[in-house]
Amino acid sequence: MLVNFTVIGGNASKGLAKRIARRLKAKYVDADTRTFPDGESKITFRHNLKKSVVLVVQSTYPPVDTNLLQILSIISEAKKISSKIYAIMPYMGYARQDRQFLSGEIVTMSVVAKMLQAAGAKKIIAVDIHSKTALRHFKIPTENVSAIPELAKYLKKLKLKNPIVVSPDTGGSLRAKKFADILKSDFITLKKSRNRKTGKVSIRSTKADVNGKDLIIVDDIISTGGSVVKATQFLKKQKCKRIFVVCTHGLLIGDAEKNIKKAGVTQIISTNTIPRSISKVDVSGVIAQAVQ
């Protein structure tokens, strides 16, 4: 059965939303956003909504709370027309606050889930969410799609000779293995430790021989770039060749990109879940496939 879709592009994800609409041959509705001097957002739809399956596309990268409130507002308005609204959140902020790590911490992901449901979202779709535990806070259907195959295809085009895929920590080892399987290359996992209170990262050891090899560091999110810088510095001491950094979500807060390149990284590549100069890989295809 042919499904009638309407795609609404939030202020943070207009480009990606338009790409999704084109793939689905769906009507695109722009959510025009005006920001007042005090930081308040005023949202206006430039086209009338008609009854259909509505896809609201909005990543919640910085300013996280502003982008979150905007998607809640758009969903709430769309609810007046449609009873079937999908919240497409390619990058979902607060997913790292999915459980209590230290006594007294609020599990903010639980609050976010309740707000999205209350606003009217009937399904959530995310791309490479940091922790699948975050999705357990929802009482509506959720789907996490992966950008790893698309990222790996892009790296194939670079025609690196016998590269080694690197996971910067044990938590990302399955991601690195999946990436390496597509490239038909080896992969290694670094042993990283992070102080929960200070956030300081240290690399302990790896037994792999990377001497003279091109390396591909694969991660889901690059925020401040601290982990990538530490991993790069460690690997450079092992006399590796070039280092490419690949991630789904390139937040690149502050001087992150500058610091990563200064550490010796040849190129940083991310997807367009967050629009950046490094966003070389399009995820509209995997998202469109997930909603059909």
In short:
It is built from eight helices and 15 strands. With 292 residues, it is of the alpha/beta class.
Overall description:
The chain is α/β, with parallel strands linked by helices. It has 2 domains: 152 residues, Rossmann fold (3-Layer(aba) Sandwich), CATH 3.40.50; 125 residues, Rossmann fold. 30% of the residues lie in helices and 26% in strands. The protein has 8 helices and 15 strands. The protein starts with a strand and ends with a helix. The mean pLDDT is 93.
What is the topological layout?
Blueprint: E1 5-9, H1 14-24, E2 27-35, E3 41-45, E4 53-57, H2 64-78, E5 85-89, H3 108-119, E6 123-127, E7 142-145, H4 148-157, E8 164-167, H5 173-183, E9 186-189, E10 192-194, E11 201-203, E12 215-222, H6 226-237, E13 243-250, H7 256-263, E14 267-271, E15 279-281, H8 284-291
Parallel strand pairs: 1-2, 1-4, 4-5, 5-6, 6-7, 8-9, 8-12, 12-13, 13-14, 14-15
Antiparallel strand pairs: 2-3, 10-11
Helix pairs in contact: 1-8, 4-5, 6-7
Keywords:
292 residues; alpha/beta; Rossmann fold; 2 domains; seven-stranded mixed β-sheet; six-stranded parallel β-sheet
Spans of at least 5 consecutive residues with low confidence? none
What's the CATH topology name of the largest domain?
Answer: Rossmann fold
- Specify the CATH architecture of the largest domain: 3-Layer(aba) Sandwich
Calculate the terminal CA-CA distance, rounded to whole Å: 10 Å
Name the average pLDDT.
93
Give the ordered list of helices and strands.
EHEEEHEHEEHEHEEEEHEHEEH
Give the spatial strand order of the biggest sheet: 3-2-1-4-5-6-7
Using the coordinates above, name the CATH class of the largest domain: Alpha Beta
Describe the sheet with the most strands. Answer: 7 strands, mixed
Principal-axes shape call:
globular
Strand content: 25-35%
Number of strands: 15
The number of helical segments is 8
| Percent of residues in helices | 25-40%
The count of domains is 2
